Amino acid sequence: MKIRSLALFSCIFMFVSFAASQTVVPRLGIVANISQDSLVRASGFTMIGASVTGLLSPKITDEAFEEKLLEVKSARCKVITANLFFPAELKVAGGEVDEENVLSYARVVLSRARKVGIKFIVFGSGSARNIPEGYDREKAKADFIKRCYKIAKIASKYQVTIVLENLEKTETNFITSLKEAAVIVRAINHRNFRLNADIFHMMRQSEPPADLLMNGDIIALCELAEKEKRTLPGVMKDNFKPYFSALKTIGYQGYIFIEGSTKEPVVEYPQAYLYLTAQLNEVYLNK
To answer: Phi and psi dihedrals of 186, rounded to 5?
Structure first.
């Protein structure tokens, strides 16, 4: 009997150990200028988030884009995300939308993203998606869903995923919570249009970690920064572990990108990497 019990205990221990060894901790990236590639890599990161305006925008000539492309290809870090999808002057929601212009712009951005090797385009663009005061919100929502489905089809052609970002009310008046963004993504129902769970905005809006639990199937990217001044993790010592615990519960194993502000990147980049890595390991690996 003792032998059987010992054998059973050994099997359980081996199973738990195997399961723990299979746990994948989300990988960290940081939004930074490609010129900071060496510093970013030395700080521990292997991925950089760029901006559409600085790298992919149609306003950038083909010649200038090719030069930027060479710089990206020679970088030590991979550029796999780009934010600031649409500029403020190119409206994507509300009544004054030139849809053909929007789609034409998206084609250029997404085709260039494919050449760079970018996997995700972050769709925040708070000013571009603002709707006029008093505008019919349900109509804005319905039109936005149809328009984004068309954008998603273009993204599919170039093997890029659009990730809709939940913004706070100080940045836009349209789609201002994770729940609202999730409703839009589910209505679009396209594999190339997913959800970017921005934990910084969730904290600013007092959205609980529990809101992540209902949307694990559509979250493709996460971003964060510290709550008060959008500083890099470790400056104010914010605790992200409750949100990481929710991400672990839903089985999230994707990327987490830091999108914050700093005046001392030499100090704060490596600090942010170590600070977040420690919190992730504590939650995901029980270390």
So the answer is: -65, -35
Tell me the pLDDT band of 287, cut-offs 50, 70 and 90: confident
Tokens coding 231: 């500083």
- DSSP letters of 98-130? -HHHHHHHHHHHHHHHHHHT--EEEE--TTTT-
- pLDDT value at 21 more than 60: no
Question: CB of 134 within 8 A of CB of 170?
Answer: no
Burial of 51 (0-12, 13-18, 19+ CB in 10 A): middle
Q: In Å, how far from its chain's centre is CA 66? A: 25
Per-residue tokens: 83: 């934010």
Q: pLDDT tens across 192-247, in order?
A: 999 999 999 999 999 999 999 999 999 999 999 999 999 999 999 999 999 999 99
Q: Read off the pLDDT band of 20 (50, 70, 90).
A: very low
| CA–CA gap between residue 50 and residue 48 (Å, rounded) | 6
Structural domains present in the chain: 35-284 (3.20.20.150)
The SS3 assignment for 30 reads strand
Please determine, for residue 163, whether its predicted confidence score (pLDDT) is greater than 60. Answer: yes
**How far is residue 243 from each of residues 61, 86, 203, 286, measured CA to CA in Å?**
41, 28, 10, 15
DSSP readout, 130-198? ---TT--HHHHHHHHHHHHHHHHHHHHHTT-EEEEEP--TTT-SSS-SHHHHHHHHHHH-BTTEEEEEE
